[in-house]
Amino acid sequence: MATLEELQARIQRLDDIKQIEQLQKIYGYYMDYGEWQKLVDLFADNDPSVEEADRGVYKGKEGVRRYYIDLLGGVPGKVPRPGWLSIMFQLQGVISLDVGATTAKGRWYGMGMEAKPTTSLHEGELRQTWISGVYENEYVKEDSKWKIKKLHFNLTFRTPFEDGWLKVPVVGQTGPDSKILPDEPPTAYSPYPSGFHLPVSFKHPITGK
Amino acid sequence: MTLELLEAEVTRLEDMQEIEDLEKKYGYYFDTRRVKDVLDLFSENTESVEIESHGQYLGKDGVRRMYMVGVGGEAETALKDIVARREKSSGAGFNVITQLQGVVTIGSNGKTAKGRWQAWLAESFPFAGTFGQYWLHGYYENEFAKENGTWLFTKLFWNTTFFTRYETGWLVQPIVGFLPMPNPDNPPTAFHPYPSGYHFPYSFPHPVTGEVEVPVFRYVHPMAT
What we know:
heterodimer; B: 225 residues; alpha+beta; Nuclear Transport Factor 2, Chain: A
């Protein structure tokens, strides 16, 4: 029979996993509505980073702020364009967390439906698209709260509703922004049909490898 | 930590799991037209149920009228007939209402809870005289109560984002049409589909800042932009 302390540690781990899962799901809900400041506040204060698709890596809390507020948001307080739609399901989370640990990793599928401009010039015409990709994220417990340490969304496809991923795997990706520069270039951008598999953070549940 | 505090922690985790399962089972029952089983997931003290543009139904009797008379198409007394006919049906009319991304917040008393989900639907049913195949999306904000050790729905609200044809898509045709019911207690309370930009308030506090959202009516009429 485990001691009370051991039981407490095991229950704490289950609670931590639940909190991390909710953190990632709430990240998704805030992304859907373009809640840029709320998103920045989900990230760790100490050395966070964010990378999505081919936009490059934004580092530090200031980099995270530049990514969400300046780049995705436009400028602080900018009203979203009418018809802008962003829905990204946060699916199939697997959280890897040891008993007593204050860092964790998680893999998720992002799958969704959008209506966004797909060219950078003139903000472009709105297109309806299906989007799919994989997250490999890291989390840290700071001040007794779980926060996002590293967010990496690796795009598999973003295809026009009318075409499909086989015909047109990707629209609307034009590389890192030319004004709001990332700190590092994209690390693993290779959408369908490259066959690239983003490495998994979890261990095989049976073999442990 | 004392045994009492440990028990409270375990209970909270079990409660969250039970509520997540309850919501998922609701989806499976609804998809398979098990309307009586859907009804039994709701508390006798249910406040309201509202989905799509059907209107708002109040109380447990409202739940019965929504799912039995409305979606079920029959009075409760004809349940056996409904089941028998479903078994013989062609299967052409169907719905897959996925229950995704649940975030459950247990109340401080441990007896009530709120949760947000989103649903992504594939459906086919006759509308405007012909069978169509549809994509739908929307967010749930639901409420629950623990009664005699069991979690039940006390409020269910699914707020539609779009209801579009497979052939056209949400940008081209956000709403195929309205699906009013004949007998709601109130008209739809917040039916503002895409592209209104309507923001369906969150039940959860911000996980880091703790900020609790004050519901704001964020609808913007397209002509006003």
